[in-house]
Structures are given as structure tokens and as C-alpha cells.
Amino acid sequence: MADYYKVLGIPRGADEKDIKSAYRKLARKYHPDVNPGDKSAETRFKEASEAYEVLSDPEKKALYDQYGSNWEAVKNNPGGADFSGGDFGGMGGFGSIFEQFFGAQNGGGGFRTQDFEVGQPRDVEREVEITLEDIDSGTSRTLTYQTMDAQRTRGDIATVPTTKKVEVKIPAGIPDGKKLRVPSKGHAGVNGRAGDLYVVIRWARNDKFRMVGEHLETDVPVSYTIAALGGEIKIPTLRGVVSMKIPAGTQSGQAFRLSGQGISRMSGGRTDLMARIKVTVPKLLSEHERTLLSELQTLENSK
After folding, report:
1. What is the pLDDT of residues 69-83, one digit of tens each?
2. Under 8 Å between Cβ of 186 and 159
């Protein structure tokens, strides 16, 4: 058995896109309709089709990568494709592979490229907005969306709308803009295989917290008396409220770092929370408060 990667002319690390592209080029070059009577081209086409049939299937590819030519025995499914027909009017699996890429023949010859485009598995991309609280803890979302799945009827390719419902697990700390891949949940091609679903994570705007680099920052209102004299204040986090003491003479705009009280990292642990002090001044004062402040003002002016 030939090395499937060498047959397609691709490295072992090639992804699905590279595998498809390599097969497409070889199939166009060596298809028997392009090379009538050329047994060498017929052989190359068979080899390329066989290689693609295995490497384009994630399960078969995984077995082939691990066991090489023994992959079918390991899978315990030795059926494979039938080469005995001799002509490519009955190519079985390999003929259908080509049709999946290039569509049926169009009358006197040539390939319907529009069938190639329509009949292929295609990926789907959806955005999901997640609150910072859910980003911090991890969550899941159920997505309901529509795909256009390809079907071949009487030699033509048509697309049929299909509603799909998928639950997506969203890990804690996933970065804003990160894509999650859900295999085989995209648009299906005529070969029955489907593209992938890519879920783009977007962090929802939060009125209480903002990101500064990788850390969270929040404004904490503090009365002018506590700012002047020092004392204990309450600081909100994504997981509740924590207490901390600030020193006397704390200024408005001053920030205090709370280590590990920010948002979860996908790699583990949490970032820091910066508590930025906003000194507040009361709009209404009691007569006693006004008197005390007037005395304080007199003292300050006399310095």
C-alpha cells in the first residue's frame, strides 16, 4: 500500500483544507475523462481517490496515522472499495468521491464547478455573547441555527434547510474572540459529511467592571470621611463582595490591587482586580455636619 500522504503530495501535519486542495488538483489532472485510455493516469486517479477517502475521514485518518497500512484490520472493516470493474463508469467509491468534489459530468464533457462549490461540506460560524460572570465560572449555551445541507437528486445538487441544535460547553477564562470548534455541525455536503461549527465567544459589556490588560478594574465609591480617616470598604468582585481596609488620606482615583480577585484564566488561576477609589461628597448635609465641616475649613484656612 502506498503512503497516502505521499500520494497526495502533502506532509503528515496537513489539515483538512490542504487534503481537499491536494486531492482536487490530482483528481482534475488524472481523471479518466481528461486522460482517455491512459492507464497510468487511471492508476494515479485511483491512488489519489483512495488516499483522500481515508485521510478526509477523521476516524480513518486517526487509525491510518497510528497503524499505517493495517488501519483497516484494526477497524475490523476490511470491505473497502471495489477496483474490479475495470472502467470508470463503475468506479464505486472513487467515482462518487470525485463527483462530491466536481459534480456530475455536463453533457459532452467537462465538470460543473457550481456543483463542486454547492455540494461540499461547509463550516458555520456563530457569535455568542457571554457575561463576565459566566466567563469567570464557565458555562454552556444551546445554539439553534439553520444549515443548508446538500443533496443530489437525479444528478443535480440541491440544498435543503436543516435546523440544528447544539449544546456548546464554554470553559472558564476563555478569551474574548476565541473560537470553539464543534466538529461536523456545519453545512453537510453530498457525501454526507458536514463542515464544522465555529462558535466565536464575545465578552458582554459590563457596567461594573472593565478590562485593563488582562486584569479587571472597578470603581469603588468611598465617603470623604473614610477616605480622610481610613477604614473598611466593600469591593465587588465577579463572585461576590469582599472587604478591605484603606489607609487614612486615600485620594480619589487611587487604585488598590486585590491579587487573584479578577477573572479566571483559561490556563488556570485568576487575574487581579484593581479597585479605583472614587471619593464621594454628600449633596445634603445635616446642620451638625455643616457645623463640623465649617470648623474643619476654618482650621485648614488658618494653617
Report:
1. 776 766 654 433 333
2. no
